[in-house]
Amino acid sequence: MNQQVSTSTLADTIARPETTIKVKEQPLLSVQNLSKLYAPGKGFSEVSFELYPGEVLGIVGESGSGKSTLLQAISGRLAPDEGEVLYLRGSADSQLQQVVSLYRMAESQRRQLLRTDWGVVHQHPLDGLRPRVSAGGNIGERLMAVGQRHYGSIREQALQWLQDVEIPVDRIDDMPVTFSGGMQQRLQIARNLVTHPKLIFMDEPTGGLDVSVQARLLDLLRRLVSELGLAVVIVTHDLAVARLLAHRLMVMKQSRVVETGLTDQVLDDPQHPYTQLLVSSVLQS
Ligand SMILES: Nc1ncnc2c1ncn2[C@@H]1O[C@H](COP(=O)(O)OP(=O)(O)OP(=O)(O)O)[C@@H](O)[C@H]1O
Ligand SMILES: [Mg+2]
User: Fold this and answer.
1) 161-185: per-residue pLDDT in tens?
2) Do 277 and 141 reside in the same domain of the chain?
3) What is the total count of domains within the chain?
């Protein structure tokens, strides 16, 4: 079988992801046999994977299969029932790297990682924004959290990022509650990328965006992945987005990973009946 998932307009705008992944010796994130069940079948079970710098892992699957719950657990925001999440802290250049276990460290240290090393783009944009702080303030706050203090420079970077995610710069002093859902989503992405994190977790980041804005945003993300070695875990319903951005895919159904592999492999030659159904339903739509 050699099916192609239609990427129509997006494919015209963006080139495909690099096929070579720069694999460094140690994974940035190592998820080992992780489970979190709120009730039988509600959550996720026995998930394991490794993520390297500059690598994009896509998570797709049916609604309610546990994708958001998994993202919460691997980003240090929801303690699992079982398993380990290991993170390689520190910079390769400084030679001061250390593998830390997310749920064995103090909560304050985990929070610190979320401020300095990671970004989280939430499925519902207002969950990831301060609704009553200005757009510029939402971005500036992240820069201050990593130690920047120069007001002029912070405002300059906020303006640049508003431009990058296509929010009119004259909205810099407006509150996110006055923005459309798509603008809130783009602001959330800007807030998370401004500090150039090493790892970003994204839950349906392109939901609610029109196709052309979505294409340019994906292009921006792909540049950050290749230029800065940004690692990404992205949950998406959109197989076209998964094909364009993800190097590897994990498919979830009923709290379990049913298939995993290189994106092209999974989408062009799906092995599990659920993945076959997912791919063929996109081809027919
Ligand atoms: N805080 C919670 N308490 C109890 N059950 C929860 C909680 N959060 C999620 N669930 C349940 O866990 C299951 C997985 O939810 P989750 O949000 O992870 O699914 P999902 O794959 O992200 O779905 P979608 O694609 O619709 O966003 C669902 O049955 C959901 O109702
Ligand atoms: Mg979800």
Assistant:
1) 999 888 999 999 999 999 988 899 8
2) no
3) 2
